[in-house]
Amino acid sequence: MEDMKTFSTPLENNYKTYSMELAGRTLSVDIGRVGKQANGCAFMHYGDTTLLCTATASKQPREGVDFFPLSVEFEEKMYAVGKFPGGFNKREGKASEHAVLTSRVIDRPMRPLFPKDYRNDVTLNNMVMSVDPACDPEVVAMLGSSLATAISDIPFDGPCAATQIGMIDGEFVINPGYEQKAESTLALTVASTREKVIMIEAGAEEIPEAKMIEAIYLADETNKKVIAFFDQIVAECGKEKHSYESCAIPEELFAAIKEIVPPAEMEVAVFTDEKQVREANIAAVTEKLQEAFADNEEWLAILPEAVYQYQKKTVRKMILKDQKRPDGRAVRQIRPLAAEVDVIPHVHGSAMFTRGQTQICDVITLAPLSEAQKVEGLDPFITKKRYMHQYNFPSYSVGETKPSRGPGRREIGHGALAERALLPVLPTEEEFPYAIRAVSETFESNGSTSQASVCASSMALMAAGVPIKKPVAGISCGLVTGDTDDDYLVLTDIQGLEDFFGDMDFKVAGTHDGITAIQMDIKIHGLTRQIVEEAISRCKDAREYILTEVMEKAIAAPRESVNEYAPKIESMKIDPDKIGEVVGKQGKTINEIIARTGVKIDIDDDGTVSVCGTDRAKMDEAEKYIEIITMNFEEGQVLKGTVVSIKEFGAFVEFAPGKEGMVHISKIAKERINHVEDILTLGDVVKVVCLGKDRMGRLSFSIKDCPKDKAALNE
Q: Is it the case that residue 2 has pLDDT exceeding 80?
């Protein structure tokens, strides 16, 4: 037999590892160790948190698209925290809401740094393989996506970097871990390029504007250190960027369009506050150009994009040079506002907020805490959501038609933003023991529906009797920039056209006293500090106006109680050792209470019992049952019960489901009786007095010794 031979040679460890200290922990990156067939790959380690971050691009542009097809994925592997995935298959399924939101946070700073005329598909994949509770994988994913793309051959004007800031006891914490986040009153994420801030996402407990700006630029300072570290890696490991087929509109087509439709005519077409009128005007312009270019198939194919770009240039020029907005408003002017509550009957609470052609109706539903949403994820401190805010954006809201396929990433993101804005003002579970679901229905959309959702939800919560601490309002500011950093104009309350053609959508929500949420999206390579500060200041002024002049006139404070259609919830405390008695064997006792009263009962491990129902008398009955079941009977206590069993020696009286007492035959009547049935029958309701324990330690009760003038404990 031929001797066994080895035909392979050991692989050499020829990859490179780079590291730096970041907020007291080591950030290290392996380049060339794994994922070598991706255009770019960074094996990221922050503490013991480990992610595989890759960037890949198609070799050819996608046909028929007029946008950059970027996909960002954040994959939460449950093995990263030593858990089995939930569900029947025990396998990770579709992305969780948290994963979707993380993907959006990565997408927003990355997208502006790709060429505007690039149409190749690009996918940024971030796989969480290990989680160190002190090092949030979100931060690592944002850094890894940037680095993987920067070292790849994909055209990209990076790298960028991202930092999270928390605040505990008034002190900022850079890149807080899960435990610190649970205590923090600020959850801020900031992405930056070498020169400017490019993305802001924040949730806060009424942080003053000045403090928020301080936190933003602490993050920006940290980002610059990370970018310097990344620049070193790119210099040593980066690939040459590949060439690509540009999808830019030829300048000769623009020149021909302007000959047929002069700039003044295009200004007239777009200068209106009615979206439908503007769309009709643009349709007429497009038809006119199609007739003119009927013999040029190449130009006809790209004419819709050319008209879009012509609109964009026209609107930007009108705003920046002439300070004319398409609907004729002043730069700081908010569109007409309206607010009302109780617009939907028979629900637990509702409100509608209208700002120009943007209209949101929000509906509140209240339920017991047991209805809180269970959360399965990587954060050990977030296991349920008591407050859920969901946002819907049907096609009719923008005058279009398409089938509903459930919420997309945008809808999930808008709902989460409104949820984040309102969380700081919600009452505690002890103050208001309800799970709360808010659903924002978009009736009409022409700019910043997410902030209209904040306003509508705040009013709907108050209308539902949820004792929020303060009302919350939100508004968005836009931006148009010129050729220099000083050539710009910030716009208060942008409509859809100013969002599409502008450079920024800066959303800020809060109370009279501070910021509760921020989300900033931009289409350029960053904002100067001057622009950031001006936008935050503008949003504060607009927010104060909306709160004072509109929302508080519709409803000034939460109603004193929930309405007639909402469930009523009462909480009581019992000895945790008595929980078993209330539940009973296999749940028999608690199910009997529920069957008799029609209420819903939830019991926590600490002995907190929540009784939920719509009939106050039935709720009181259930509470009395629980009080009797958990009562330590003492001599002299008077109770009312039902005869449920008759024996030769006496009768058993039930005071509450699972709670009975025995009345000896000698204690039934003052005169001697031979048979219990001579006096009592099954179902009789009687009053008894507790005689204490007999010689065998059993509780005994008497009918004949019961004081006639004393009320029963369970009446």
A: no
| Per-residue CA distances from 210 to 214, 277, 691 (Å) | 6, 42, 70
Asked whether 650 and 685 are in contact (CB, 8 A), the reply is: no
Strand partners, 71: 123
Contact yes or no for 463/365 (Cβ under 8 A): no
Delimit the domains of the chain by residue range. 16-237, 251-320, 337-554, 568-629, 638-702
Q: Which residue bears the tokens 């006496």?
A: 650
* pLDDT computed for residue 9 by the predictor: 62
CB 350 within 8 A of CB 488: no
Name the pLDDT band for 62 (thresholds 50, 70, 90).
Answer: very high
| Residues 610-669 pLDDT 10s | 999 988 899 999 999 999 899 888 889 899 999 999 999 999 999 999 888 999 999 999
Backbone angles phi, psi at 644, to 5 degrees: -115, -10
Write the single-letter amino acid at 432: F
Measured distance CA(290)–CA(283) in Å, rounded:
10
In CATH terms, the fold of domain 638-702 is OB fold (Dihydrolipoamide Acetyltransferase, E2P) (2.40.50)
pLDDT (tens digit per residue) in 199-218: 999 999 999 999 999 999 99
Triad 121, 125, 129: Cα angle to 5°? 170
- List, in sequence order, the alpha helices (H) in 381-515: 409-422, 449-463, 496-501
What is the model's pLDDT at position 570? 87
Question: How far is 240 from 153, CA to CA, in rounded Å?
Answer: 5
Q: Give me the residues paired with residue 481 across strands.
A: 488
Half-sphere exposure of 562 (CA within 13 A, CB side): 22
Report, in angstroms and rounded to the nearest whole number, the Rg of the chain calculated over CA atoms.
33
Pick the CATH number of 251-320 from 1.10.10, 2.30.30, 1.10.8, 1.10.3470: 1.10.10
549 C-beta neighbours (distance < 10 Å), count: 12
231 is in an annotated binding site: no
Partners of 688 in beta bridges: 639
Q: Which fold has domain 337-554?
A: Ribosomal Protein S5; domain 2 (3.30.230)
Q: Which fold has domain 16-237?
A: Ribosomal Protein S5; domain 2 (3.30.230)
CATH topology identical between 251-320 and 337-554: no
Contact 213, 532 (CB under 8 A): yes
CA gap 653, 667 in Å, rounded: 13
Q: Locate 146 and state its tokens.
A: 């940037």
Does the annotation flag 499 for ligand binding? Answer: yes
